[in-house]
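User: Good morning. I'm curious how pyridoxal-5'-phosphate would be positioned relative to this chain. Could you predict the structure with it bound?
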Amino acid sequence: MKEIYADHAATTYPRPAQVAEAMLGYLRDIGCSPGRGGYRRALDAARMVYDTRCLLADFFHVPQPEQIVFTPSVTYSLNLVTKGLLAAGDHVLISSMEHNAVIRPLTRLATERKIHVETLQCHSDGTLDPLQVQKALRSNTRLVILTHASNVTGTLLPVYEVGDILAHSDTLYCVDVAQTAGSDAVDFADLHCDYLAFTGHKGLLGPPGIGGLCLSQRAVDLTQPLIEGGTGSRSEDVHQPEFLPDKFESGTPNVPGIAGLAAGVRVLQQQGLPAIKEQKTKLTQAFLTGLAAIPTIIVYGTKEASTTTATISLNMDGVDNGDLSFMLEQTHGIMTRSGLHCAPLAHKTIGSFPTGTLRFSFGQQNTLADIEDILAGIREIVAER
Ligand SMILES: Cc1ncc(COP(=O)(O)O)c(C=O)c1O
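Assistant: Good morning! Here's the predicted structure, ligand included:
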């Protein structure tokens, strides 16, 4: 049976061959730790890590490569922002489409540090009016966190407009680009943000276990590291270095992950983001058009390919979405994700809590033939009921 992978919002698959080759290349040909020795292999590792920082700085339009720190995941990056910045009495604004990587650390901090978390209610298609952010700002609003796109409906949030509202204010601004990096324009400078949190294993085509955070100068000054330890620098000092990237990068890094991420980003640069976005939009549009003709299917989100990523959530009237996901794989080899997608507030927003939805998410590797096969599979299940 043909396999169709339609869970790119979870992780990218299959990865470009260059990603595995770069990881193997590091393990086989370099193999040593960066910044922890003066011999050739250690210098080669350090150069590769630095080159990847430069590559990402260019990719996200970050002024200095050191403003990018590597982390194990966007979850870690978001924990670094919230736990490293917030203190008692701070007011934080988030949208109702955020991932648990934002919601759960803030829930803990609300109890432990007495911060005030305010959730801005998005419309039932997941959209947010940027003026809602402006109206909710208070004198003690320390941080606004927004996802660039919902991982449930694909709905794009107005992160650039909010950036314009917050520019020159004392409120720090964090954008989670887990769902958009690698297909949509992600420009650190244009966003006027203080933190850009990204993950390597989705649209950036890299391996799991590597992500990062881009920080503005004031964010660097105001944020405490989540962990401290060896950096390979100033070993005589018992204090964590204050300079970048060492302030936030302790312990031997995931060097094979960094090598794989660099390879993924280079593939994206060859393909070109406009071409990737065009392909994903074409797939999304074809899927939405096909779904609109199936009466028992309820589609969530804006239902417009131009205002979403290539992620679509749906339910089939009278069928459990977990069963539907199972049936699609068993009978047609189609891989999807059902349930709540680590975003309970998003499901409350779109009206699918607590059962959730069935999520389809496409990558540039998918084809229009895949979309046709998925639609045929859905139609078959509908017809059998
Ligand atoms: C919007 C958003 N934020 C955060 C995450 C967490 O990503 P990771 O598991 O790579 O840390 C995800 C992943 O599903 C996501 O979609």
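The CA atoms of residues 130 and 162 lie 6 Å apart. The two ends are 23 Å apart (CA to CA).
Let me know if you'd like a different ligand tried.
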